[in-house]
Amino acid sequence: MKRALLPFLFVLGACVATTRDDAPTRAAVSDSTLPPMKIFAVPQPVGPTRSNRDMARDFLDLAFTMESGRTLSAMTRFEEPITVRVTGAAPVSLAPDLKRLLSRLRREAGIDIRQTGDSAASITIEAVSRDRIRKSLPQAACFVAPNVSSLAEYHRARRGATTDWGLLTRRDKLAIFVPSDSSPQDLRDCLHEELAQALGPLNDLYRLPDSVFNDDNAHAVLTGFDMLILRAYYDPALANGMDRRDVARRLPAIFARINPAGDRVSPETLAETPRAWIDAIQTALGPGAGPGERRRSAATALRIAQRAGWSDHRLGFSHYAYGRLMQSYDADEAHKHFLLADRALRLAGGPESPHRLYVATQLAAHAVSAGRGKEALSRVTPLLPVAAKLENATLLSTLMLLRAEALELEGRTAEAEQVRLDSLGWARYGFGSDWAVRAKLREIAALSPLKGRY
Known about the structure:
Order of helices and strands: EHEHEEHEHEHHHHHHHHHHHHH
Oligomer: single chain
Number of helices: 17
Helix content: 40-55%
CATH topology of the largest domain: Serine Threonine Protein Phosphatase 5, Tetratricopeptide repeat
Distance between the termini: 49 Å
Number of strands: 6
Strand content: 5-15%
Radius of gyration: 22 Å
CATH superfamily of the largest domain: Tetratricopeptide repeat domain
CATH architecture of the largest domain: Alpha Horseshoe
Shape: globular
Largest sheet: 6 strands, mixed
């Protein structure tokens, strides 16, 4: 199981035709120092609002199918207690982020899990370079494998029965491989997704709007939905070896006990995501395809969504993906689809949808580049608390930098300077290295028509 490399989530990216490396900015930051990195200290998860019938359906589809479409005959999980150790070249940000994650798993999912230095730990998190991860799985940012404790051990066993998830009868030993040379946020996101799949379900479902168990990678950290799924996964009423029918019989009572509010909600029963749409999205947004093939695949995904009559987040996502791939080809067409994506996501997911935040960066960037400061402010300002609540520093810092440019367009220069300065601590967590932070500053500064005066 892996966290995929999907470039469509890189914030902004192609929001202007050209971005000069030497684009001037009045908020010049010293080459020798940036503000201290900021972190999200207090989790703010929101519990799921769907019905327990939908929760049970989601649980079964997550637990008994793999991302490839392969079905699993039996559920597997750890026998508690679970221990976690860290090896390799672990960056300094890993320890506090892992500590917070383990605390959440104990508190919200009720899982008995703790960190250890013992080499016999249930789960080993090995920090290695991105190059080593991609040599193992070219499309992965990070991944988890069963019955091994190191990447070297994985390479020796990767083509045999040892690392075949479908042959497991229980989980005793797993390894998670995370990038030691990525930004703190990328590393943390890998910890959340891969540890969740090491503990529980192995599948990802595009129909889930509020979960890291989704290949769109929109959510950065485990959500309230995810914690409820994991709580159910380790409920005493379930056990290793149970098949789908056995688990299905027990789930109504489990969810009624751990999520009583869900029994009072009517089910939505979102349509399944067809393989044709998944394949089109993965071609459009994953590595390997050329620009023309990407655009054609994004158009195919959008047609499938429209013909299916979807009104959920997948329709907005389809418009967004198409817009991203049209930006350098037809900017007006791209902007039209960003507007359509925003409308679809507002109707489907409400203001706390992370998908809306990605769309907002594009719409705000367009407004800034056109000199429409008020419009940019109206798009960005209400979403800043949402980005913070979702613990996405990449989005939060980008939205703050866009807000700074919009404030300058409105003549509020001092306020703009303060917002820009405040954004840099989050940018250091989201983008990592100083050069990456400064590159983002230059990219967004280049949007503003005012910068041509300097």
